[in-house]
Amino acid sequence: MRILIIEDDSQTASYLCKGLREGGHVVDHSGDGQDGLFMALEIDYEAIVVDRMLPKLDGLSVIKALRAANKHTPVIILSALGEVDDRVQGLRAGSDDYLVKPFAFSELMARLDALNRRSDSDTVQTVLQVGSLEIDLLSRKVKRDGKVLDLQPRELRLLEYLMRHTGQVVTRTMLLENVWDYHFDPQTNVIDVHISRLRSKIDKDFDKPLLHTIRGAGYCLRAAN
Amino acid sequence: MSLFTLSALLLLAFIFFYTANYMAEQTDATIEAEIAGLKERYKVNGLTGLTRLIKERIARKPTGSGLILLADQHFNVLVGNLSRWPDASETSDGWLNFRLEDKGWGEDAIHKARARPFRLIGGFHLLVGRDLHDLEMSKRAIAKTLISSLAFAAVLALVGGLAMTGSLIRRIEAINQTSNEIMNGDLSRRIPTNHTGDDFDQLSENLNHMLDRIEMLMEGVRQVSDNIAHDLRTPLARLRNHLDEVLQETARAGGDSECIERAIQEADDLLVTFNALLRIARIESKNRVEHFTFVELADLVRNVVDFYEPLVEEKNQQLDVFLSPGAKVQVDRELLSQTIANILDNSIKYTPGNGNIEVRITSEQGRVKLVIADSGPGIPWAERNKVFQRFYRLESSRSSPGNGLGLSLVYAVASLHNLDLKLESNNPGLRVIIVFPNLDQSAQKVNPLPIG
């Protein structure tokens, strides 16, 4: 991916650039909002990572200007401000995701991937498929190898989200926010139990596992390679 | 007050007896003086002169209280204003105490009298005395006055005492009331003062100063722990990121990453704790709920229950849910979700396998009530208030996973929303009860900024 990072804190910036480059992405960096906006307008990036607090032009204004210029590049905001208000503000300005500092790098990576995927699928799909597993979104039926699987509504919601992010790392936080709309850390890792239950329904009796655990990051649904 | 009355009584009695005594002495002295005068006349002018003098005295004051009688050797009346010599024996100091009777006096027909008998040279008997009626009347009048004074003073004392006690009690009540409110968590309250500078005011002022200091210290502690959490969070996140890099490298190099993964897990747990601390701090620092929405409590609870069901199934516990629809509450949806999640999480965690958990929405006196009860070990009575403290864990729970902040958040959210939060025994187990204020009440109390 070609990614633009607009971040004025040099330490954070160099860390992010290094990490993303190691992940195989092409990374550009700007240290202030004005310059960053120019770059974003000129070059077609596949994702932009913006810090809220920037010199010359703050992050939210950069995004607003970008959207006003009809540029729909996916944007993630990085911010130390984590209140609901702040998140809502950021999303209203036109960003696609909001990450509160400090964050795990794997979290950022996972979300960038998710953004990228989101911008791809403009068409409305009625059937999602991974390997021999498929969901019919209209009839709400799940089948693997032709066999109908009995999933509870919440298990189906979870599976649907994972399938929409096939091949990507999905972090627990992403699941919590997008499947349950919860923005807190539960005391116990309930998500893990949800995943293992799902796994027992879609993977256990079948030959190839589709739902994988990515250590230190989260989960990934993909056809084994 | 009784002490006052008793001393007043003693004083008035003393006054009475002293006055009565004085009057009696005066009477006697007057009598003696008269006798002396009469004796002198007898010496100078003999019987004739004495007789004339006596007649003059009686003529001068026919209705006075002076008694005078001259009798012969055989006590026959010669001259005087008594009909006969009194029928009484002399006292040891030579006085006669007798009674006078006169039908003309009407109701007070009998008067007391006191007189001094005297033997004149020649064998004549002279009696000089006094009708004590007037004296007695005076004494009675004085007694009445004194008694009414006493009664009046007693009433005054009673009323004054009550008034003073009343205001005293009111002042003490004010202090007690404020103290209770403070102990219930409102550290910003202060004891009202009357600005009279009296002892109570000074006491109140001193207490208020103490409260200022406590509030400041608590604020300081909160800030310190907030700062710690905030300042340590970033380096910790960086640490975690570095570990993540090592993990990636190890994975690339095909090595064993188990140790690194555990280290990352520990770092993640630490970050969760810090985030929870900061979250609690932020909630506590608010004095009102910022994101009030009307929430169908049944929906919100069902979502949380749904979220935790896999855990319940894993432990083979029985979860019974009674969610009556239509119960609406005005809350911050996010905060309440987390609150219920924490409580339910605890119930599931601490209740053994095959145990029972119940989640129920009912009402209490028209207010919405949420009960989460389990059949676990419960919380000992002595620790019921302590469990809300940050990092507090029961002895029996120390080996279980958890950072001791779950209930601290519950408490902070309940305080912010003015919810009634109670921990009771479920016989056996724990029963957590949350009673929500009436919808109009919650609006009044917390002055919300409603979301459109």
List keywords for this structure.
heterodimer; A: alpha/beta; Rossmann fold; 2 domains; 5-stranded parallel beta sheet; 4-stranded antiparallel beta sheet; 8 helices; 22% strand; elongated; B: 452 residues; alpha+beta; Beta-Lactamase; Helix Hairpins; Heat Shock Protein 90; 3 domains; 5-stranded mixed beta sheet; disordered C terminus
Would you mind describing this structure in some detail?
The complex is a heterodimer of chains A (225) and B (452). Chain A is α/β, with parallel strands linked by helices and 225 residues long. Chain A has helices at 10-22, 33-42, 59-68, 84-93, 105-120, 153-164, 172-179, 190-202, and strands at 2-6, 26-30, 47-51, 75-79, 97-100, 127-130, 133-136, 141-144, 147-149, 170-171, 211-214, 218-221. Chain A is 41% helix and 22% strand. In chain A, α2 runs parallel beside α3. The longest helix of chain A has 16 residues, at 105-120. Chain B has 452 residues and is α+β, with helices and mostly antiparallel strands. Chain B folds into 3 domains: 2-140, PAS domain (Beta-Lactamase); 216-284, Helix Hairpins (Orthogonal Bundle), CATH 1.10.287.130; 293-446, 2-Layer Sandwich (Heat Shock Protein 90), CATH 3.30.565. Chain B has helices at residues 2-60, 133-183, 199-253, 258-285, 297-314, 333-350, 406-417, 439-446, and strands at 66-71, 77-80, 96-101, 110-119, 125-131, 293-296, 318-323, 328-331, 356-364, 367-374, 420-425, 430-435. In chain B, β1 and β2 form a beta hairpin. Chain B starts with a helix and ends in a 6-residue tail after the last helix. Mean pLDDT of chain B is 85; it is low at 442-452. The interface between A and B is large, with 28 and 48 residues.
* Unreliable runs of chain A: none
Share of residues in strands of chain A: 15-25%
| Spatial extent as radius of gyration of chain A | 19 Å
Question: Whole-number average pLDDT of chain A?
Answer: 88
Number of continuous helical runs of chain A? 8
